[in-house]
Amino acid sequence: MSNPYIVLPVIFQLFVAVTLMFSWTNKNLQKLISVVGSLIALLISILLLLKVNQEGIQTMQAGGWIAPFGITFVADTLSALLVLLTAISGLAVSVFSVGSVRNARIRFGYFPILHLLIMGLSGAFLTGDIFNLYVWFEIIIISSFVLITIGGEKAQLEGAIKYVAMNLLASVVFLTAIAILYGLTGSLNMADLSLQVAKVENRGLVNVTAILFLVGFGIKSAVFPLYFWLPASYHTPPPAISAIFGGLLTKVGVYAMLRVFTLIFIPDTFLTAVITIMAMLTIFSGAVGALMQNNIRKVFSYLIICHIGFMLAGLGVYSTLALAGAVFYLVHDIVVKTNLFMISGLIFKFKGTYSMRLLGGFYKEQPLISLLIAISLFSLVGIPPLSGFWGKLLIIQGALDSANILLIGFIVLGSFLTLFIIARLWSEVFWKDPQELPKKEHIKYFNELKPLKKQAMLASVVFLSILSLGIGFGAEWVMRMAMHIAENLMDPSAYIQAVLGT
Amino acid sequence: MKTIIFKSASVYLLPLLLLFSVFILLRGHYLPGGGFVGGLMASIAFVIHSFANGVENTKNIVKFHPGFLMPVGLALALLAGSLPLFMGETFMTGLWMDQPVPVIGTVGTALFFDTGVYLVVIGVTLTIIFTISEGL
Amino acid sequence: MELLLVIIIGLLYAAGIYMMLRRSLVKLIIGLILLGNGANLLIFLLGKIVKGEPPIIGPSEKMLGEIYADPVPQALILTAIVISFGLQAFAIILIKRAYKVVKTDDLDEMYATDEDL
To answer: What are the transmembrane regions (chain A) (predicted)?
Structure first.
């Protein structure tokens, strides 16, 4: 169904970014615009999801050029849901930034670039054109480059170099894959490609292209042999920036894989085997990496990798149940990972360090905040009624149906290692006897902040914690939606028909 | 570079190239040209000036920070792109005036979009160049 | 023409990867630039090179008659060039800043991110 307004989440974020640029000098005004803009964006994306739920897949042809010739925007349930989650994380990070980001960074244009990043993310989720997806990816990475370097501390710049190099390489691989795909089929529209790729006789070349896409998206989503840039860079920027990175950037890669490997390339046994093996090794290496770390932000960075493996496992099993599990886990992971990095920022504001060895006694000092943090930590582990449990359950069910015992073993192992890591983190940070930490001059501690800033930081953590509780307790509703998405992913004919209108 | 010929030529080249860049911008709708090329050409005008006279002098010619051109250009392009939305058309559809304007010809939203691109390109390029040449 | 382009693309990719594997930051950027150019030429090649007219419909005609060049690869390359222009400019500024702060352009010397704090 044609609907010209589905690009509104994208256009609105650009509008907010432009408005923020005009109020460059006034930092309080910028904070206000950013929070209000994020609230309105949240409203828009809720409306979009409701509309898609009621009336089915919505499409828009940019400039009125009919598909497959023009650029198509498609909002199916998966896209609309992810746009909604982007808006939710965007709002939380925007509110958290009001409390935590230093004025020097705001003067360098922190807020406009944050909104450009969210615009890029929404665009990547909504587009139905493979080259346009590349363009949105570039918008995302250039905004993230600026965000990761703003401030220019030594570790930040070194992390940024690794991040920039790997992401630029990923873009080149992605572009090469698009070039070959265009040479094979002469089309860029994803729905049209779905039909054209099936007709190509040279299956070997199709598989090579698929692997190129897998490598390109694999670097971006940090899967097993390609993830080394992530733990080297995600712990360097300020917590608000880590939060939006950890919550959303790797997940765009996962979304792109879910889309490309269900719509354009239907995986054969070779491809699913490759993806499954990558998933197992990702889970294992992420979990083992997290075991070795002392910096809590590095622990969370490795846990991102570990849990990307779960989603990849869902894609590797390639059944409706497993894909539904992957989608459910994606929803849970975006909310929880954003929250965890904000929590690490909160702990830093109290104690002035990220080191688990030095931290301790947090529970005794701040029992209420500790309980709040516990919600997110235990959702991450996936203790039953909390949100992490249901996605994993679906993936394991799917893997059982296809009798992939080894994969189940790795998923269970990954879960137990996560449990162990979180338990260790809990006992080190919250229960261990506190040490006397020297006061650091350049840090503004939590109790020195203005009340508004304190409330902003706490409010965003509370908001996401309640949401993750909601996902856990309202699992039936989310699961129904995830099943619907997975059915549409397995049988993309509705998507193709909505875009091409035949 | 401190040669008198280059230095005196740059003074005349700056307005000439700026004028030419506007010509390229306007030419771009049906013929080769357009906002991106025009914008690059305009920034080249400033780059030549900065080569001849030093970056500080070029910064003095541009009275405001070139980064300010970015939001202006983006706003113009955004407006031109989303204007059709208010008329019930899809994003980025070209809307055209009924009557041609003297000299320029028929004006449509595409012209404003391209002008937006032109301004953004100048803003970005000059910001990059001024940043790179800082403290060299 | 095709064969020549294939060889050039292969050389650009090979040189780009080789440069990226070096430890120097400047060579890293040069490698990325070469890779980007290789990818752009690849799009150009895979858009099928034909000797024909530019894809412009004349004022008196309704559709393209003669053999014409595919305009899509050119649009893609232009977009990719614009994007890589921005990214490379950023990367160059970044390595300059990093060089000023870290005082080396050897990637092996950059281990502040691995410190166990």
So the answer is: 6-25, 32-50, 70-96, 108-127, 133-152, 164-184, 204-228, 240-258, 270-292, 299-321, 327-348, 368-391, 403-426, 456-475
Which tens digit of pLDDT belongs to each residue from A319-376?
999 999 999 999 999 999 999 999 999 988 888 888 888 888 888 888 888 888 888 8
Q: Which domains does chain C have, with CATH numbers?
A: 2-53+68-114 (1.10.287.3510)
Query: Between chains, do A160 and C98 touch, taking CB under 8 Å as contact?
Result: yes
Q: Does A62 touch chain C (CB under 8 A)?
A: no
Which of the other chains make 3 or more beta carbon contacts under 8 angstroms with chain B? A, C
Asked if omega into A68 is within 30° of 0 (cis), the reply is: yes
This prediction's pTM:
0.94
- CA A319 – CA A339 distance, rounded (Å): 30
Q: Do C86 and B124 touch (CB under 8 A)?
A: yes
- pLDDT tens, residue by residue, C33-51: 999 999 999 999 988 887 7
Nearest to C82 among B36, B128, B131 (CB): B36
Q: pLDDT category, A216, cuts 50, 70, 90?
A: very high
Name the residue facing A295 among C97, C111, C116 (closest C-beta). Answer: C116
List helix spans (H) across A245-386.
250-263, 269-291, 296-317, 320-351, 362-365, 367-381
At residue A143, does pLDDT exceed 90?
yes
Q: Name the domain count of chain B.
A: 1
Q: Output the pLDDT for position B1.
A: 62
**B32: which DSSP letter?**
S
Interface list for C 11-30 with A (CB within 8 A): 16, 20, 25, 28
Cβ pair A64, B90 in contact under 8 A: yes
Q: Which residue of A has its CA nearest to B84?
A: A63
Q: Are A106 and A90 in contact (CB under 8 A)?
A: no
Residue B65 and residue B130: Cα distance in Å, rounded? 10
Q: Which residue of chain C has the CA closest to A297?
A: C117
- DSSP letters for A141-177: HHHHHHHHHTT--HHHHHHHHHHHHHHHHHHHHHHHH
Chain A residue numbers touching C92 (CB-CB < 8 A): none
Distance in angstroms (rounded) separating the CA atoms of residues A244 and A20: 19
Give the nearest chain B residue to A18 (CA atoms): B71
* pLDDT at B135 (0 to 100): 61
Widest pairwise Cα distance in chain C? 72
Residue extents of the structural domains in chain A: 4-500
Q: Is A5 in contact with B85 (Cβ distance < 8 A)?
A: yes
> Which residue from B114, B67, B129, B43 is spatially nearest to A22, judged by alpha carbons?
B67
Whole domain around residue B109: which residue ranges? 4-133
SS3 B38: helix
Enter the tokens of residue A389.
């449990």
Burial of B22 per CB tally in 10 Å (0-12, 13-18, 19+): middle
pLDDT of residue A27: 85
